[in-house]
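$ ./design --mode recover --in tokens.txt
reading tokens...
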């Protein structure tokens, strides 16, 4: 797509506005357009639909954390530029969290970096660790910012396709995808959009590849506490991985405050320093007062984390039942708050068209997984629904979707 700056100039030659013929958008970003999340949320607002597209809860997280943020603003904590690596309270809380849940020992001063959400962490990691021409192996469907950040770093993504119904990582395909240009394996588990949670054995096989080929692993673990079946294993805990793993997470999903945009990177001092070098020129520092609130969140007792998963497991069941009743093929996720479906049984063959028409047909918004694939054919009929919504909203969505079933023929 070519974006030009202005229409042809009116008026005499040499006066008025000139036509610009050069493409404005950097070629690395060509074709990326508007994110599917923005497009679909705008469609939801425009049509008054139930929004099960963009992944954000419709109920805020703990009021006590909102109070910490408000108190911090009023007390003048973090209202001016906080320290570049993040406030010490949050870095200490991140290190304590990694110790509590995974037995990891991290130095909060040198091995933790606070970022503006996981989104900035991903961008800074790609910009810091890649050279132009390097290759990044990523599981597809991949979260959309991966493709954009790899491209902005001048590198090339090499997808390894997860396939229904189970979406397990294909370790042979990953091995075959490694070349002399491969620099990073970019992982995401629990995986958005499929809900796949990588097993320890799968991660061990990936770790083995990384060690054998001397690769870095960047792992996006923002859904680490949203696991219903199996367990979340950070790949950094596996042998040989500490020195080559950049672990990314964020408070958005765990604490149900996706607008606060507090994320973090953990890794060896060398890796964190590299990522910080890029981060400091992206945002310099990240959201001051919210850092205090997320630090308080990370110190919440184990029961908070268990209740989060229990509540979402129940919602997974509600939405899965509603989708099945409406005629979708449902791939039950092991983690995250998304359900991927296949629309073939509804007589549909194009997820993008389907999602664009769904709000008009029945007042529900979903996300077409095809936009997260390079292999468009592999994802054409997959559609994702978010279940981080109130029970009555999920029930309303199920009722609306029930009108989709084709009348029985004959
Ligand atoms: N990675 C994945 C897999 C996501 O789904 C999201 C959206 N929460 C992000 C990263 C971005 O996280 P944040 O909102 O903290 O920037
Ligand atoms: N991570 C959320 C999702 O997958 C929202 C991301 C976004 O809006 N950029 O829906």
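writing sequence...
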């Amino acid at each position: 797509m070519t974006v030009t700056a202005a229409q042809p100039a009116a008026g005499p030659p040499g006066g008025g506005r000139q036509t610009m013929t050069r493409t404005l958008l950097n070629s690395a970003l060509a074709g990326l357009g508007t994110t599917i999340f923005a497009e679909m949320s705008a469609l939801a607002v425009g049509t008054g639909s139930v929004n099960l597209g963009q992944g954000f809860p419709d109920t805020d997280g703990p009021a006590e954390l909102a109070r910490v943020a408000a108190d911090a603003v009023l007390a003048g904590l973090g209202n001016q530029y906080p320290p570049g690596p993040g406030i010490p309270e949050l870095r200490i809380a991140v290190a304590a969290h990694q110790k509590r849940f995974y037995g990891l020992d991290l130095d909060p001063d040198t091995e933790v970096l606070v970022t503006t959400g996981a989104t900035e962490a991903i961008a800074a990691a790609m910009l810091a660790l890649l050279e132009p021409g390097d290759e990044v192996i990523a599981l597809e469907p991949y979260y959309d910012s991966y493709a954009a950040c790899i491209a902005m770093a001048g590198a090339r993504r090499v997808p390894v396709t997860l396939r229904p119904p189970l979406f397990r990582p294909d370790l042979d395909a990953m091995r075959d995808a490694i070349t002399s240009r491969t620099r990073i394996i970019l992982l995401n588990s629990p995986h958005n959009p499929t809900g796949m949670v990588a097993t320890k054995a799968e991660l061990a096989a990936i770790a083995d590849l990384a060690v054998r080929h001397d690769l870095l692993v960047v792992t996006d673990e923002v859904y680490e506490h949203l696991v219903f079946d199996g367990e979340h294993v950070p790949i950094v805990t596996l042998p040989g991985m500490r020195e080559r793993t950049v672990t990314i997470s964020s408070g958005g999903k765990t604490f149900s405050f996706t607008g606060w945009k507090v994320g973090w990177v953990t890794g060896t001092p060398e890796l964190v320093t590299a990522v910080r070098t890029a981060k400091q020129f992206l945002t310099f520092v990240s959201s001051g007062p919210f850092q205090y609130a997320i630090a308080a969140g990370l110190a919440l007792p184990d029961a908070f984390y268990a209740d989060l998963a229990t509540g979402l497991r129940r919602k997974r069941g509600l939405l899965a039942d509603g989708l099945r009743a409406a005629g979708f093929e449902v791939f039950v996720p092991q983690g995250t708050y998304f359900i991927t479906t296949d629309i073939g049984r509804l007589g549909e063959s194009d997820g993008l068209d389907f999602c664009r028409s769904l709000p008009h047909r029945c007042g529900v918004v979903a996300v077409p997984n095809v936009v997260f694939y390079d292999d468009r054919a592999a994802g054409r009929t997959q559609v994702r629904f978010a279940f981080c919504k109130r029970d009555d909203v999920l029930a309303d969505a199920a009722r609306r979707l029930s009108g989709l079933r084709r009348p029985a023929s004959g």
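exit 0
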